[in-house]
Write a structure and sequence with these properties.
The structure is a homohexamer of 192-residue chains. With 192 residues, chain A is mainly α. Chain A has helices spanning 20-33, 38-42, 47-62, 71-84, 88-102, 105-113, 122-136, 143-151, 156-179, 186-189. Chain A contains ten helices and no strands. The two termini of chain A are 23 Å apart.
């Protein structure tokens, strides 16, 4: 059964027409990750949008100065939101990130399939219950839900960041579904 | 019945501690719009995130060089996604934008309440049906849905932008719900 | 964008063939409200049904002898039920009524868009939670839900009336959706 | 297992305090049907409302001059709407009516349980598909749905009446759920 | 209105080609029940599968040595699961079984239409709430749900059996829906 | 993060008390598969039920004489049903089976996460669309759905088997959810 070999279902420009800063950034990706994530390739038709995406993403997922959530926690949110939305791209890419950051391949699988089967700490369970609800029935989120996060030890700044990460993957999931975005195949074998 | 007077349900810093570029940007907002949209105030606890948001938003909603959708069409998408998600903040702010850009207050109301009652062009109906589906059942979007956009006259670049705008309001709606974000009251009376 | 100018999607008789009592009633509407609500016009194809509708409606929404709910509370229920059902006609007509009776235009908007963002009294919150549930998942209403109303200060007679108003707008919403009923345009500008 | 012996979960007045016209109407019910339907008893706390209900109901379900739908078709709609809403009272009372009017006890059962298993005429299938959709997702009803009724042979006046009957049982179902209304036990054994 | 006279929507072999053990079993059914349940006839195209079904079913529903749930309780579960799934075959066949085993025809009707209206013991209510949830949102079942069964007096072995019966009717309901399986008409009149 | 080490959330007997035929069968499992699937261990509290399960399962999934679906097709159905129901046990165990039988690890991942992203043959797409619908909205399956299978080349016997496999995993998924059944950890690393 031949698998898809597209990145998205709209045409993309040749990579050699990209601006130099983008070319350099892609080279850095290859150096660090061994690949240019296809989500970045997907934006190459509009480099202004690509730059915004990179900047937004890097602050959201990687910044450690202003965001107190661990990188693993952010990736766990990414996977659980993507599981709720059944987003193939993000489940593959961020499932791999969870396997890598946690050193626990089974945890990645569980979050992809059904986060409720994981034996989570009260803190992480509260966090993932919140992001599942925010994804599925956002208009039903109430002060009691924020309070549950506070009761589990999260600060108000953490609550902002939890919302931000969860909301963002509701963005990326819809970009991936809307464009039928495929992940780089290399992710599948990594960190097993 | 006293109405809410908060911006979000997490504490925000005093405005005078903000960096100069942000202060200038807010001053420009007041000059142009008569107000600083509360969604910007909501990010002042993390100015790196605020800068990303502004940059992302402005390219997405205002850029006319690389995006061929009209500003009104982008605002129509914003309202319909926010209607699907029942997001008070975005319905108020972007409902006002539709009223202003269309010069048709009733159109704004209809999109807020039920876009299916509007007598839309085939192009706009296809666009709004797509974004409603992408919002409500993203994993069911298929090539047939993209083809329906092409059949209605949209280019592949337009499809990218339609996905982008629709996906982004799935982000902002969840920030607003997650933080109980209130809109500036001034919007209610504008463009009636 | 030309907006709809129909009342419903089935033909209606000329108004001059209506019976005298109906003509008089419509004249009284014009005198009091400045218009004949289109929902009444929608029934003119069957005047026996129109008379039943008027009588039912007036007791339900206007009677102050046997029903202890305030008129504003009844209109709040009407709007929240219509929001759950995304009914354009009733949101426009009864949203206006809430704006007028409350003197608070923002309250009308909030109930249309998402009643959960309003800072309601415990009594009104209990009332609106009940009617939302009765609208969306009627078969899940249980004694605990009625008890929540009693705990919020409602009498058994009030409970009957809350059910009656909420149930009735589940009727009218479906008449409006089924016939694509449009509201009089005058409502939009009133009580802003 | 003792079964419920209440009519509704709010107190009702003694029957001897009722006004004479109501007493006479109830006597006529006993004469014709062998019972006073509990739904009428349920309204005895507010006789103005009871009179409205009786008048509305009788025109809707029994009038043969202005409504061209057969009584059986109206009862079929009643049962299918009540099946969608899982309303015990209306399924019992109107399931019995279908059994009686059709002379086909199995038809009553099928409509209660899943109308899709009945081998219906194209006309009746179109009618029941319409009322199921109007009940479950009223905001998705579109001109195509009305056209399907016309294509199946219904007039515009019939469409008005189909909407009216379907919408009304969305009213009564919610009164029954809201008040936990029980049907007269006699219905169970009738017309088997 | 002629009712369906098929068993399933795929062809079945003549009964005389069946193996002797099956013929004998069917004869025993006629002797005991007065009929061969059509669900058994439905499997005659694959007698190995038929034998598995019979064996599975008989242990599940009839064995009294290793399963402590009463036969009536098992049938109540069957009906409530089938009500959730709106399965005509199983509602007819097992609704009859509830009527017979309970000697209470009304109980059978109530479970078919909406089990929440029955005045159940705490034990039976807990059991039926569990199987409804396991049917409708299986991935949301949590330890708290199992604990609610224990609190209502069920043993761990009972919990295994409750899951087993509820899960099995999620199997049979889908066989019946998938094949449009009709029940023997004799069930309708039995145990009224 | 320590992962769960239970099989199910009800106590199981020691394995040495099992009957000889079961012990032999388990030994054969170890010989062939390298493990005793935990789903079999889960039934050891009731060996009559365990024997039924084994017999039912083996005919359903392994028999090649009377069932024309390939083993891979049956496993694909198992995974897609389990994805719809978000069943961790079955996704792990049968996801591994798809990886092994197809020799395509990515196919297993795609079916777990969202089967719609796979570039399936028309035959397999029809099959998986059918089982998804049968799982999620069984009461909406209609003759048109069976016809779509016939149009894709399936025989009536195949349709029976497709229903059977899909229905059965609606059984096992609910056993797994109801008992919080964990898969053997060995599956995770197999066939990557």
């Amino acid at each position: 059964m031949p698998q898809p070999d597209h990145i998205v279902r709209v045409p993309l420009p040749e990579q050699d027409i990209l601006d130099d800063d983008i070319k350099k950034y892609f080279a850095k990706c290859v150096e660090k990750l061994g690949l240019v994530p296809y989500v970045l390739r997907a934006y190459t038709g509009n480099q202004a949008k690509l730059r915004n995406f990179i900047s937004f993403y890097n602050t959201l997922m990687l910044d450690e100065e202003t965001c107190a959530l661990s990188k693993l926690e952010r990736e766990m949110i990414a996977v659980v939101v993507s599981s709720a939305n059944r987003c193939y791209y993000c489940l593959v890419a961020h499932g791999q990130a969870v396997r890598e950051l946690s050193g626990d391949p089974q945890l990645g699988e569980m979050l992809v399939m059904n986060y409720r089967v994981v034996e989570l700490s009260a803190r992480q369970r509260a966090m993932l219950d919140f992001v599942w609800k925010l994804t599925k029935v956002p208009h039903e989120i109430a002060e009691a839900d924020r309070q549950a996060l506070r009761d589990a030890g999260f600060s108000d700044a953490d609550i902002f960041d939890i919302c931000d990460v969860a909301a963002f993957f509701n963005y990326t999931n819809r970009m991936a579904h809307g464009l039928d975005m495929m992940p780089n195949r290399e992710y599948h074998a990594m960190s097993r």
